[in-house]
Write a structure and sequence with these properties.
Blueprint (H helix, E strand, L loop, with lengths): L2 H12 E10 L3 H9 L3 H4 L5 E7 L9 E8 L2 E13 L2 E8 L2 E14 L2 E12 L5 H10 L1 H16 L1
Antiparallel strand pairs: 1-7, 2-3, 3-4, 4-5, 5-6, 6-7
Length: about 160
């Protein structure tokens, strides 16, 4: 197999996507405002994962960076992300440094009516081809359905 074919195959094997959506009985403005607060991330992260934010403004906007550690049990996973494409209808966070080769998480908020918003999460990720980070990233990817089910439940509890 030629080197370019191996690289293409490796790229395909480590590229993954995830999609989740839920509805919350809260206005689009309230949902967008909630998600713009740095403190919301640790608040909607399920135990046993612990998120410690080291550096970020209290309210995130385009171009802001967030530096944090996610403790997966005894394993600290350091992460740095930048907020991009922010608007009242959502934003993206792009991993600048962390466990993945690439991670882009798009948060989209769609008004269903004046008191209900659909929250959509779309993640495109590429596992880091590394003997330590590949299995960690794969484990994190496998856990995304549980993580986002908890986030939906907790967001509803906090906003409804």
């Amino acid at each position: 197999m030629a080197s370019t074919q191996i690289k293409a195959l490796t790229h395909e094997l480590i590229m993954m996507n995830f999609y989740h959506r839920f509805r919350v009985r809260a206005s689009l403005a309230r949902v967008a405002e909630f998600h713009s607060h740095t403190a919301s991330m640790p608040a909607i992260t399920p135990p046993p994962i612990i998120v410690k934010v080291h550096h970020a403004p209290p309210v995130l906007a385009n171009g802001d960076e967030m530096d944090f550690t996610m403790w997966l049990g005894p394993l600290p996973v350091h992460w740095q992300a930048r907020i991009e494409a922010g608007s009242p209808a959502g934003f993206s966070d792009r991993q600048l440094r962390g466990p993945f080769l690439e991670w882009v998480h798009r948060h989209t908020f769609d008004a269903v009516d004046e008191n209900t918003t659909e929250v959509k999460d779309e993640i495109a990720l590429r596992l880091r081809p590394h003997p330590f980070w590949w299995p960690i990233g794969l484990g994190m990817r496998i856990g995304l359905p549980i993580l986002f089910a908890f986030r939906a439940w907790k967001t509803k509890r906090m906003l409804e």
